[in-house]
Amino acid sequence: MTVVGPFGLSVRDQALEADVQAGLAAVEEGLLDATKSEVPFITEAAQHLVRAGGKRFRPLLVMLAAQFGDPYAPGVVPSAVVVELTHLATLYHDDVMDEAEVRRGVASANSRWGNSVAVLTGDFLFARASHILADLGPEAVRIQAEAFERLVTGQILETAGPRDGRDPVDHYLDVLSGKTGSLVAVACRFGAMMSGADETVVDVLTQYGERLGVAFQLADDVLDIASDSHESGKTPGTDLREGIATLPVLRLRERAQRHGLPEDVALCELLDSDLTDDARHADALARLRVHPALEQARRDAVRYAQDARSALAPLPDCGAKAALTEMCDAVVHRAG
Length: 336
What we know:
By secondary structure, the protein is mostly helical. It has helices at residues 14-34, 40-46, 48-51, 57-65, 76-98, 109-113, 115-134, 138-160, 168-194, 199-226, 229-232, 238-241, 247-259, 262-271, 278-289, 292-311, 319-333; strands at 2-3, 10-11, 102-103, 106-107. The chain has 17 helices and 4 strands. A two-stranded antiparallel ribbon has the order 1-2. A two-stranded antiparallel ribbon has the order 3-4. A hairpin with a 2-residue loop joins strand 3 and strand 4. Helix 4 packs antiparallel against helix 5 and helix 13 (247-259) crosses helix 16 (292-311).
């Protein structure tokens, strides 16, 4: 048994492991090349998160999806670089919006250089992704543009909140489909499409990626509350401090509204207070960590991962399918 990629994903097929490792190494080189600039400061800022590491979750999915066609096709690695650059760009912007201080175990770009530099660096990464994308053809450009529109729409919907009468949990899951599911779906779609896989295979893997992406973000929501900064690589409870209600908080509010238990109502009131106060923030985190709402959010993450696994059923049995199936377990395992 060997291990590649994020979360200790095990791959039992030596040829598949070699292909994936070679592909990820090429992606890493592509990321460093794409983030170089004639201006040294831009290079430093653009490579800040690249060099900090990361799970390379999306490039790994590109490599595994490409196994259903020709994994050595020339568009596979560049498309993986595009997806990861886009993801990295959103992290720079997210950290500005969240006023985050830590990302991937290092100081966030905004805390190191200020918000303006962080935003412009994210824009620089988007530009470099677009430059690579142009060489992959108009269909790839269209797919990426549609996904990016969904990503931004999801972010806006999160900021705006649910419209009157809309269930907050349903609204939030729609937000995640846009913010996270769209780009993970593109990773799977690009891998299959660039490898020349059949259109039915491309469609299956796109559906898988969408569902896995939501499961991944739900697991992140749980991790943000349940873990410490050493485990997650970022400051725990960032969304709580900013007043952003992730699924554990939404499940708590749902429970408080339905049952009216005094301890649930009191915790909701605490969450609605000023959590920039360190003592209140720590108290809120501690209470949420032992609350049933957190376990319910874990179950939601597992459900989406199971849906992703089910989507793979039409694919032929092979090492790549086994690895994608295991990815479903690996994603939710992070949440405990």
